Amino acid sequence: MSFEVRHSDLAARIGKIETMHGAFETPVFIPVIHPVKQIVDTKFLEKLGFKIVITNAYTTLKYYGTEACERGIHDIINYNGVVMTDSGGYQVLRYGSVEVNPQTMAAFQKDISSDIAVPLDKPTGYGLSYELAKEYVQQTLNNARETLDTIHEAREEKIESQVDDNCVDTIWVGPIQGAEHSGLVKYSAESLDTLGFKIMALGSPVELMEAYEFALLAQMIAATKRAIPTKPIHLFGAGHPLTISLIVALGCDMFDSASYVLYAKEDRYIHANGTSKLRDLSYFPCQCPTCLSYTVKELLDLDKEKRTAEVANHNLYMLQAEVSIVKQTIVDGRLWEYVMQKAHAHPKVMEALELLKNFEFLEYGTPLFKRRALFMFDPLDQYRPEAKRFRRMVSNFRSPKYKRKRLVLYPELDIHPFYSSTTFVNLTKKFPDAQICTYSPFLGIIPVEISDIFPAAHNLIPRKTLTNSQAKDYPTFIDSLNRFLIENSFEEVLIVEDHFILEVIEKITTQKPNFKVLRLQE
Amino acid sequence: MSFEVRHSDLAARIGKIETMHGAFETPVFIPVIHPVKQIVDTKFLEKLGFKIVITNAYTTLKYYGTEACERGIHDIINYNGVVMTDSGGYQVLRYGSVEVNPQTMAAFQKDISSDIAVPLDKPTGYGLSYELAKEYVQQTLNNARETLDTIHEAREEKIESQVDDNCVDTIWVGPIQGAEHSGLVKYSAESLDTLGFKIMALGSPVELMEAYEFALLAQMIAATKRAIPTKPIHLFGAGHPLTISLIVALGCDMFDSASYVLYAKEDRYIHANGTSKLRDLSYFPCQCPTCLSYTVKELLDLDKEKRTAEVANHNLYMLQAEVSIVKQTIVDGRLWEYVMQKAHAHPKVMEALELLKNFEFLEYGTPLFKRRALFMFDPLDQYRPEAKRFRRMVSNFRSPKYKRKRLVLYPELDIHPFYSSTTFVNLTKKFPDAQICTYSPFLGIIPVEISDIFPAAHNLIPRKTLTNSQAKDYPTFIDSLNRFLIENSFEEVLIVEDHFILEVIEKITTQKPNFKVLRLQE
Hints:
The structure is a homodimer of 522-residue chains. Chain A is α/β, with parallel strands linked by helices and 522 residues long. Chain A contains 22 helices and 20 strands.
């Protein structure tokens, strides 16, 4: 299986995965299709540009039996694109167990020509004790092993019987369990990786999402991503419009959900910031073909079945739009900004963002240089990968010896790079032998020598944020100045009267040089 | 003319205006139509639900002359909805002057059956000295007076000649000028109001917007709104997707723009957070019918004329969607949240939001009670009208005499209202005679007796924001506690060890009661 990455930002990747029935691009939202009573026509999904759907192999087996093997899953659901199948894990979660074993489900998924298949797993859900969750993880691992054994045996038989089988095979997905127990998630992910699965799928987020426990969800994805940095990651049951940008930013390449139809059945209409009951709408905040063909009242007046189908169509358009927005944002290098903006739709999403501070893996996919300026608004922005990188670069910067007598620290201006400002020219005239630096609460110390390096000259911050920042909120800044002073041992530091830097200086723990405060006019 | 308001939030209003050619709903985006070489078919605009367009009467006069009076403007532009006409002010701004006088333009606009017409004005643009701007304002006022005189004379002649004229007449719009000189804007608005204009139109924002001077724009609108609190306000030349929610929130009921086609001519594609060059797009972040019928490449490969038309169509869909989103947000009572979220799209928009603090007029339209919880994230949210109102209510609250021995201040919990929490029950057991209050950095002091009043029990704040808030950022809180202490003269105040309240106490300027700090366990 190939996974070709064309763009990335944070841990998000625009990539391409090849299967027996064609390729699809990631990040991708995969609509759940019911193999028997599907509400939205799969042909409509093709028209909408969905190149991959997911359906339930267990339900297919129960309903169609061996007929499914003869017809194949693509014929059953009348869809020519990529078909992923789930194995019954969802049923296990809901009803405790299913009446099949991993071997049966493995053989069946292979026989119905599933393009991407999942071993029968035992989802941990949310709220299990560590011990019980561990048992579930272990059982899922055993199932996964048995699945691979079944597949390998079948393959060997085929080879012995000299059947020509050059086409790509079913791609098997490693089902990661462990839920809120990060240690188990890590163990689960690493074990499946070792077994050789090409795609990893993270289970059990639905209940976390229903409880708006987005922070736990983020931790679960982070544990996975740290264990599996390169292989594609699928997230089961993630169809909430609020969280798509976040889960993609954290590195989920694929995610499936039936939300579009489940919401529709409850007359819930998806919009950019969540869902609304249809009857609470006075206007459609949308210009999709469905919303353009009805007024709210007309849609409400349809009979239940037709209404459900139409709302489901709209919901699909919205989910598809959100994924397109996120993809374009990845190309633009503005995913951090978008995730931050989106988090303002709900305080519970915002709570999850606090974690991004410590998600070092967000840095790997973030380009070293971006064409667009960074927009920074909130203290959290000091932790974006570009800022962390810049501070690291500065921590390696050494001021030339002849400049170490004096450091001049000047607050950031609107003019970038700083050396092109008249302020800089005046400063060099006044202090010809000094090391001159500007500073930004978000980026730290900016030596003029590297003030044109990304993102020092490529960022925009609201004036008010720059002038009102409080040292307390910017621990990375204090650290950055501390290190800079240690590494360059200046004799004297000139600062201008600026409340931010004055506050910072109080917090400097290193052996302080002689600080001298100047008025801005001086 | 009637202006019927059905919903409001901040200074935004969902209203309805009746004209000779039907009614339209506000807030409304009014596409600019070229009377001679229009790129997007006006029939398409009708299909898209645009019930009002604006076109240029001066250009119409130049090109069609008296033919226009015979045919009428609706026939000229082939459109059956409401037609508003501008008078040539734009041409004055661009070319310095026009070859007609106010009387001619007044008679002409009446004769072509314009539904909403504008006297020939002299736009101040942006960057004029106060003196020159004042001259322009005065000249515009004179023109407006002459326009009304012309119309009144015509009406009297008609009455004398016994012509039956029961239908609604052309609605004349008062052209406010003054730009960044708020005093002139106020003078201009008040004078036009006195003259009896039914709709006010604020001129000259285009150059401010092009310079991203959104703060100046907001001040200009505020000056208008303070002078004209009830009549509908039109804003000329406002078609930037970033600012629609802001200008509506500030009280602009109507706004027109040719941006959809001007951007299209430069291959600029409007999206929720701004515009992008078509060639910079890899995906359409949109599901409008236009975007669904092309790939980016296909659209780029069209010939220039066809491409311009298609991009203009998409741009119209996007602007229409943004207006629908804003309208639904008004109905939901979430306009403040939406404006805040939108401001995260660009630091320059965020800069403008700082002004909202002092825009007292945002309170008039904000409902006293909302069905949905307030979401609060940022110190700026302490200035939202609901919070201001609540603090005012608390400033009138008097603790019963027997409770004035002791005030217990407890940090806000997730449980609303506070009296339904076990913490409260325990506190009353321990301090049966005490006045018990919670506090929130955003709302101030919350006496338990009114802890179920909106929005005390109807708000959601990220946990981190609650626990990390700094007293410095919440001057309204310090003021609220100060007043509460003055009005109720407690002998003793018990607080729990909470860094926020400890910081606040340091800043209390009133004669301090005896503060006693408890551990949370006590």
